[in-house]
Design brief:
alpha+beta, Alpha-Beta Plaits, 3-stranded antiparallel sheet, 3 strands, globular
Length: about 90
């Protein structure tokens, strides 16, 4: 099995990619980001997206971590079909 890097996320900025890389690293996964923005000197080129990369062997674990974070960040009641009572 090849351990070539694979993209697990495509985000809009280096900052967001750095946060995701930090999250993945905190879960014991090697991660880096790649951007075609002249080393950060041409940030407008980030509009093409910044890729977060992990080893192919870590892809499933990385996607699980990202999915868990996405589930945790959903608003209450957003996905379960029930409306939460208003507190206002």
């Amino acid at each position: 099995m090849s351990d070539a890097p694979v993209a697990v996320a495509l985000v809009g900025s280096r900052t967001e990619a750095e946060l995701i890389v930090g999250l993945l690293r905190s879960h014991g996964l090697d991660a880096v980001f790649a951007a075609d923005d002249a080393g950060g000197q041409e940030p407008q080129l980030q509009l093409q997206g910044v890729r977060v990369l992990v080893r192919a062997s870590d892809e499933e674990s990385a996607r699980d971590v990202l999915a868990e974070v996405a589930r945790a960040s959903e608003a209450p009641g957003e996905d379960d079909g029930e409306d939460e009572p208003s507190t206002r």
